[in-house]
Design a protein that fits this description.
Elements: E1 9-13, E2 16-19, H1 20-41, H2 52-75, H3 77-80, H4 97-115, H5 119-129, H6 131-144, H7 171-191, H8 199-215, E3 227-228, E4 233-234, H9 235-254
Antiparallel strand pairs: 1-2, 3-4
């Protein structure tokens, strides 16, 4: 079986290269913009459409800062402590989704305070608009041949250049479908049933933690971290458990708040 060989560069103009990975994020944010404006039209998200671009910019900066800082300090500090000049080299890879969640929470709080709306409303809108971006982001990982899965004899196995000569689970696709497409459909269905802001964002945190926890059994552990608890659990799974617990805890306290969707 030949290794997956997709050129990560779409085209180059002089020294400037446009990469599939970056293009996937651009597509994700364009779709998020459309969904957010649709939520405003539906009366679910109560802000002016003109503020959507400001929201996306705030969330984008916060997300990337959180994703990068978590990757550097939680996943790979041993390396970056010796290569401080590479701290901002995000084009080389190295973003943590769990860190991105923290960044989005901070960005959502800043935007909510600035625009005098509830934090829960901002985060619900974010969680409804974000999953398509997760799908395209994972497709970018697939094209780059990174974050691949464990060795398998399954017919779904793919040989990745950086993963040795044996077929591996395309776990990037598993994650994209589960955490992106399925999550979006589930949350969009929930949107028509809930009566209070905060339920959708809590459901996203719980759902993502659930999907990611089980997909981690197919995904190769980060080389620099390996496994914990006797070789059975990855750092990603530990963080997913914390997400699930945090999601249910927040859901409980949110039920005490008076933030109705009207």
């Amino acid at each position: 079986m030949s290794p997956l060989d997709i050129d990560p560069i779409i085209f180059s103009i002089g020294p400037v290269s446009v990469r599939w990975y970056g293009m996937m994020y651009v597509i994700g944010f364009i779709i998020a913009n459309v969904i957010l404006k649709k939520l405003v039209d539906m009366g679910f998200y109560k802000i002016e459409k003109e503020k959507i671009d400001s929201m996306i910019t705030t969330m984008l900066i916060s997300m990337f800062l959180g994703a990068r800082l978590a990757y550097v300090f939680i996943y790979n500090w041993d390396y970056y402590s010796q290569h401080l000049t590479e701290l901002l080299h995000v084009w080389q890879g190295g973003l943590s989704f769990h860190g991105a969640i923290v960044g989005l929470l901070v960005g959502g709080w800043i935007f909510a305070k600035k625009n005098n709306i509830s934090w829960a409303q901002v985060m619900d809108a974010t969680c409804l608009a974000g999953p398509p971006g997760l799908f395209f982001g994972r497709m970018g990982n697939f094209i780059n041949g990174e974050l691949y899965g464990r060795i398998t004899d399954s017919p779904l196995g793919i040989v990745f250049k950086g993963g040795g000569p044996y077929p591996r689970h395309p776990s990037q696709i598993y994650e994209g479908v589960a955490e992106g497409l399925i999550m979006f459909l589930v949350l969009w269905f929930i949107k028509t049933k809930v009566k209070r802001y905060g339920v959708i964002s809590c459901s996203f945190v719980i759902g993502y933690g659930f999907f990611r926890y089980f997909i981690e059994f197919f995904r190769e552990a980060d080389q620099q971290l390996g496994y914990y608890f006797g070789g059975t659990t990855t750092m990603g799974q530990i963080l997913c458990i914390l997400m699930i617990v945090g999601g249910f805890t927040t859901m409980y306290f949110n039920s005490k708040r008076n933030d109705p969707i009207v």
